[in-house]
Design brief:
Blueprint (H helix, E strand, L loop, with lengths): L12 E5 L1 H5 L5 E5 L2 H8 L1
Antiparallel strand pairs: 1-2
Length: 44
């Protein structure tokens, strides 16, 4: 993420897609809610 994308994401989620598993026929999608501490780390 770039700094301007971090504003206003306190109630957003990050989605992670595993293409290697998808190629094997499995849906691999995970959602993560970032904590305020994680957002602070990304901003610095």
């Amino acid at each position: 993420m770039v700094p301007h994308q971090l504003s206003g994401v306190e109630e957003s989620v990050a989605l992670v897609y595993d293409q290697a598993l998808a190629l094997q026929g499995y849906i691999s999608l995970k959602a993560f809610r970032l904590t305020p501490a994680a957002l602070d780390n990304l901003k610095n």
